[in-house]
Structure formats: structure tokens, C-alpha cells
Amino acid sequence: MFGFAQSKPIDTQPKDTVEYKQAYGLRAGIDLSRPLISTLDENYTGFEIVADYRLTEKLYLAAELGTEDKTKQEDLYNFTTTGSYLKLGFDNNTYENWYGEQNLLYYGGRLAFSSFSQTLNNYQYFSSNRYWNPDDFAEGSNIAEEFSGRSAVWVEALFGTKVELFANIFLGASVRLGILVSNSDGGDDRFPNLWIPGFNKVTDGTRFGVGYNYSISYFLPLYKKKKQPKELETEQ
């Protein structure tokens, strides 16, 4: 009988070189908390669109676009803030997914812009002499006055997660710390900016603000790229 020569040497330590592809594309959805609060609180109306686009295995371009209308009652005055905002930035995924998973545990940053107006609905005068008004302060005015042309710019640091519930359907949540860069009163300093859409309450003596969102979104795969897993080392 004839033997056949081995043309290639036998690799006694084979390595895992399996290639698989990851989906890249656009994910878009809405923030769930704002419609919920709008339903429960008659003094608030808000809506926010969220989106991100995958650039690399870990890096995503991200954005939020929203509108808010908030009425607040303080001790001596009642005011309404109405406006919109845009946030642009990135998310960096730190979660190591198993094969086929697309979950995110990320940190990121945003540069945010808001344009809005404030309306002073009514106010009262403060007076330490309560003789004429023992139960309340003296009435100032019930005629609403609008202060328009307001704007603000801030940066945000955030930490969040997105979990795939079903195929391409993601539930997300994030917490955000904002720092005001500018806070313009539009040239009219008679009434300060007390609440900024997208930033929330403005506090005297500090430029910091805290926010959050809870989102549901859909991921639209546009193309796939190969990922080469790390070679598995075997014991000698």
C-alpha cells in the first residue's frame, strides 16, 4: 500500500481564530420619564428624543433633543419657563458583551444648549410689617410679564446603561451632572433664570445641576464589521 505524505505540519496547539460580526447603526427613541411626569403633574409638560450612532466597538456619538414647560410656585411669586434644548456628545461603552449581545454600561459627556423664555405670572411684596396683611403678603401684580430671549450653555458628565430587552429594543437609564458655562438673561436682569429646560433648577451660589432620563429606543442596524476575538491561550 502507498502512504501519503503530510504536506503541512500538524499544529498541536490550535488557536481560536473564529471571526464574528458586530452590528453598527443608529439607535433612536424617547425619554419615558417626561411624558409620565407630564401626565402626573399639571404644572409640567416635556418631551425628549434620544439617539446615538455607533462609530467604533466602544464609542458612540450621542444626542438628546427636547422641550419643557414648567410652572413653579415660590413663596412670593409664580413663574413659567418654556423652551427647548439640544445636547451633543459621546458615550463610551465599558461593558464586555458576550457573543451576540449589544448591552451598554457607559460613561459620556455632552455639550448642551437651551433657548427659552420665562413668564412672571404673579407676585407679592415682602414686608416685615404685617399690620395690614397679617395672613399674607401684600399683592403685587397678577398681570403676566414675559421675559424672552433667554439662553444657557452647559456641559454634562453622565453615567448610564442600555439593556436589550428584545431584538433591537433597548431600555436605558442615565444620571447626569451639569455645570453651567453661560446663563444669559437676554439683557433684562429684572427677573433671573430660575429654571432652565434640560438643566433643571438653577440654584443661587452654584453652577451645578443634576438630571436623569429613562429611555426606550430601537436600534437600526446599517452594516456589520468583523471583530477578531483575542486568541485563547492554552496551557503549556
Description:
The chain has 236 residues and is mainly beta. The chain is 3% helix and 61% strand. It contains 1 helix and 11 strands. An 8-stranded antiparallel barrel has the order 1-2-3-4-5-7-8-11. β9 and β10 form a beta hairpin. The chain is elongated and about 95 Å long.
What is the string of SSEs from the N terminus onward? EHEEEEEEEEEE
First-last Cα distance: 37 Å
Helical amount among residues, as a percent range? under 10%
Main sheet makeup: 8 strands, antiparallel, barrel
Spatial strand sequence of the major β-sheet: 1-2-3-4-5-7-8-11
Please summarize what this structure is.
The chain has one helix spanning 33-40; strands at 20-31, 44-54, 59-73, 77-93, 104-125, 138-141, 145-166, 169-184, 195-196, 200-201, 208-227. It is mainly beta and 236 residues long.
Characteristics:
236 residues, mainly beta, eight-stranded antiparallel beta barrel, two-stranded antiparallel ribbon, 1 helix, disordered N terminus
List the SSEs and their pairings.
Blueprint: E1 20-31, H1 33-40, E2 44-54, E3 59-73, E4 77-93, E5 104-125, E6 138-141, E7 145-166, E8 169-184, E9 195-196, E10 200-201, E11 208-227
Antiparallel strand pairs: 1-2, 1-11, 2-3, 3-4, 4-5, 5-6, 5-7, 7-8, 8-11, 9-10
